[in-house]
Write a structure and sequence with these properties.
Length: about 140
């Protein structure tokens, strides 16, 4: 697929993990994130009927475990050659709350595009804005 201004190395990393590590029905999606320091962190989902995490959330935790607390771009790729898959609603909300400036690579009719996470959540609920007991910044 033809791409514009997209982090192709990141897409390739997720694609490679999806192709080589997603075997069976427990791991069906791979994700890769570019951290602010330039490194790429990858992960796969841990499917379970109790609500196992999507690949994007596994990447967030894995990145933190490696000391990468600021992510700039993320992409998820499905197994069995499904290509780039957009994040589910839960991940959109979680990613926005963790990384408000995050870019997400999505497939469009014009090819892959990186879009701000906020663009995937119109009329966004911002969790931090509703923590009324938090100390005020004044
Ligand atoms: Zn998800």
């Amino acid at each position: 697929m033809h791409t514009h201004d997209v982090d192709q190395e990141l897409v390739d990393a997720a694609t490679e993990v999806a192709r080589t590590r997603c075997q069976g029905d427990r791991h069906t999606m791979a994700a890769a994130a570019r951290a602010a320091d330039g490194r790429i962190v990858t992960g796969v989902n841990a499917y379970h009927f109790t609500g196992g995490p999507c690949a994007e959330l596994v990447v967030v935790g894995s990145a933190a475990a490696q000391g990468a607390h600021d992510l700039e771009t993320i992409v998820a790729v499905g197994d069995r050659d499904r290509g780039v898959v957009p994040p589910c609603g839960r991940c959109r909300q979680a990613l926005l709350d963790y990384f408000p400036a995050l870019q997400i690579v999505v497939a469009t009719p014009d090819g892959l595009r990186a879009v701000p996470v906020g663009d995937l959540l119109p009329h966004t609920y911002v969790w931090a804005d509703h923590q009324l007991d938090a100390p005020s910044p004044s």
